[in-house]
Amino acid sequence: MARNAQFGAIIPTEASSGLPLKGDFERMARRRFQAPVPFREGHWWWIKVYTDEFRDGKRQRIRKRLKVAPATTIVREAQKIASEMLRPMNQGLESIGSATPFGTYVETDYRTTKLPLLASPVRKIYEGILRNRLLPSFGDFALRDLNTITLQRYFSGLQVGHSSAVKIKDVFSSVLGSAVRFQMLVRNPVIGIQIPRPLKGKRIKPTITPREFGLLVEAMAEPYATMVFVCVLSGLRVSELIGLKWEDVHEDALTIDERFCRGDWDCPKSDASNATIGVDPIVIARIQRLKGMEVTINWGGKGATKTFKVVRSAAPGSLVFQSLRSGGPMSDHNILSRHIKPAAKKLGLGTVNWQVFRRSYATWLVEAGADPKAVQGQMRHSRIGPTMDIYAQVVASSQRRAVTKLSEMLAGNVSNWDEMGRKGRSEDSQVIENLVELVGIEPTTSSLRILNSVRDDATTKKLE
Length: 464
Fold this sequence. Notes:
Blueprint: H1 2-6, H2 23-32, E1 39-41, E2 44-55, E3 58-70, H3 75-90, H4 102-113, H5 120-138, H6 148-156, H7 162-181, H8 210-219, H9 224-234, H10 238-242, E4 253-256, E5 259-261, E6 264-266, E7 275-278, H11 281-288, E8 294-298, E9 305-309, H12 332-347, H13 354-367, H14 372-379, H15 384-413, H16 417-420, H17 428-438, H18 445-463
Antiparallel strand pairs: 1-2, 2-3, 4-7, 5-6, 8-9
């Protein structure tokens, strides 16, 4: 008792006893658990409950009416429905913070805590989706009102492409996922959301051939030709290429431990990307050749020019590819638009960009016979999925080449091959017989039926 008396001002006796709660503890219990009796009014059953809402920037406890069920529902069933409606609140599955409007949470919490941690290009994409998509649609919604069914209706009616829907879902999941971490929501309602299927299947992504690669490098000026050379023959991402330093260049390998992306220095994209990869010695020799190179560029008006050293400093911490004007990091967008694309257009090449270079390197590895795990390690993919996508694309190309070779072989051995494709079904038997005779292909059961049917027709005609 003395102990209770000593701390009585802090912990009342009824808090740890079996007696009925009194005072503040009784009010807290009433606030947490609610069991209102449904009442019938008009054509509906209703209940009155207390909820937390934000008004004028302040959280207030208000009483509001909720529609339960049609008035034709029996009393017991209406009570069950009301209990189910209040279950999240009564079981503590709704926190007080869940009353925060989505727009207020984004402005005061997400933009100041989570968003600054993202890479600069990702941050710009997220800001655009929040500004143009999510805030206009859900800015006034309380976080607790963003349930799975509400979000599913939104995504099911979204009139955008599949890839855009995926990005919108990622942003939504990031925002509500942070609300879960900050204990303003119990679970992320975006989990389990389905987005509309793409209208078209996967398309074959463009690559360049080794011959096109050689022509492109020869058509470009330095140091940009060397950048393309290193990018293609190492599989580096452009941000890793621009952030490459002399301390990362070894005798037969390159170390990727940082990247420079649109004005921001950052660590590599993933743990798997932070690695040392082997490269051909010719790549290292091409990089080292930059140290003694000078280039002359237009400088000023009236045909004035100026000569610059390609490498101002070869110190270990200096960049390999330095801006000619400032010595700082280069702009990947400027290099692509001013040097790579004009050269590619002059050569009559198709789509050419930094991603095409990296994909071409992976494709060449596959065509050279490398196994999937080796390609995954060289490309530094965190998952085997992207690597297998490249394999599937190469396999499709090899299958087309195989079919073309078969057609060429048949055209050279089967008489009137081109005309057969334009004739009717009666010529099928001749095609099958030629295949069996020339190639040794065993015909299928259906083909044998066709062959026998044609032979029977021919025999009947002779008998007639």
